[in-house]
Amino acid sequence: MLFNSPEYAVFLLVCLGVYYAVGRARSGLRIQNLFLLGASYVFYGWWDYRFLSLIMISTVVDFVAGRIIAGGRASGSRVAMRRGLLVTVVSNLGILGFFKYFGFFVESAAALLDAIGLPATPSVLEILLPIGISFYTFQTLSYSIDIYRGRLEPVDDFFEFALFVAFFPQLVAGPIERARRLLPQIAAPRRPSAVDLYEGAWLIVLGLFRKVAIADTAAVFVDRAFANPQEHGSLALSAALVLYALQIYCDFAGYSNIARGSAKLLGFELIRNFQHPYFSRNPREFWRRWHISLSTWLRDYLYISLGGNRRGAARTYGALMLTMLLGGLWHGASWNFVLWGGLHGAYLVIHRAVEPVLPRLPANAPAILRMSSATVRALGTFALVCGTWLFFRSSDMETTRHFLAGLVSGGAFDWHLLAPTLILWGCILAIDVPQAITRNEHIFARLPIPVGAFVASVLIVLTLFAGTPSVPFIYFQF
């Protein structure tokens, strides 16, 4: 069921009612956790009950592997520790690789053979991609790796661990939570205050507005441009890219808002996944603000494992590129995603190389000069990021080629794109700018109750009438 559907609204309300009712029992926490686990399986099984087996397999494998690794550490057996880690890495990545990349690698191998004069006709199985598999796979992997590194003790309660893997607010598209953050919350009594509940409700309202009113409205114009890029001029295609930058941000940040709001109503605090990424002044800052749970996962478990910045400039640049290439491939089995990741890797490498020699404003520079410099750098970073979104959005390399050709073709501007571009960007800036200036994502929840109720009502009305409900989230395909 989709977060932006009536079914989810009913599901969440029922969950909240039962959850707080059973919490009054003597063993309330235990019952609450078991209820949430069952509700999470119902939520995931709503998509396709057959894929519940994959979550359960991953849960059992990582629970057992964690205990094997911890047992090896206690006995001083590095062999046992490595064996446990190997089990979890091979099983999780094996399942992910089969369902997500089997067809991609077979077709790529066939294309390579054909290019060198060895025609091949691959017979590829029609394999359905289990929704959310990339997210919960990374979440369970981090649990085993943290135990291996000595940063975490294995959990004793299997059902608490199962809830950590399947917790429904963030199961399908994150945020990717670490066991060190989420497991203690599962094990401890949860008593959200009135402020927590109010902030959670506001996160859901803002998330639905971002998704339904902004992202889905922008998608109408973006889809039209990408369907036939050869029919549009360079200015129209540039406007479509700017709108897609808005669409994907509001779509995914909207999902994260609803996930975090739903969790907050249940007494959980999930990691913030977006922090106004388009205000970033360089590529490194962008990845500190965009999809934070994934970027920090890649940093901690891939980039650092490859050497990070500890083994010289060449090794650092190589680690950055490989991390971003694999990060691109994580998003989907397509060379477009690899190119997208490679471009971001190149941005990070170039920025890291030139940053030490870039001119800096003196500490006593006038405020207007500092603000102007920050604005120029933010606009430049945004332009670079927009360029990469082409590869992310294109369905295939043929579409990408037509779009690139159109971007340099000139042609008259499609004026019907101007109004929606300005209106939709104005709407999101009206949310993001106050949050960024005050450095408080809950600034709207701090408004006086009458003012806050009016603003929330306006957002709800716009959500109901400006967008199309029950449109899938973009990141569901990953």
Average pLDDT confidence is 88
Distance between the termini: 16 Å
Q: Which ranges are low-confidence, i.e. pLDDT below 50, for 5 or more consecutive residues? A: none
Q: What count of helical segments does DSSP give?
A: 18
- The succession of helices and strands, N to C, reads HHHHHHHHHHHHHHHHHH
Largest sheet: none
Briefly note the structural class of the backbone.
Answer: mainly alpha
Strand content: under 5%
**Percentage of residues in helical conformation:** over 70%
Q: Tell the overall outline.
A: globular
Number of domains: 2
| DSSP summary, beta strand count | 0
Radius of gyration (Å): 23 Å
Key terms:
478 residues; mainly alpha; 2 domains
Can you give a write-up of this model?
- With 478 residues, the protein is mainly alpha-helical.
- It has 2 domains: 6-191, no CATH class; 195-477, no CATH class.
- The chain contains 18 helices and no strands.
- The chain has helices at 6-22, 28-48, 52-75, 78-115, 133-148, 158-166, 168-171, 179-187, 194-227, 234-265, 283-289, 292-303, 313-331, 335-354, 367-393, 397-407, 418-438, 449-466.
- The longest helix is centred in the N-terminal third of the chain and has 38 residues, at 78-115.
- It is globular, with a radius of gyration of 23 Å.
- The model has no long low-confidence stretch (mean pLDDT 88).
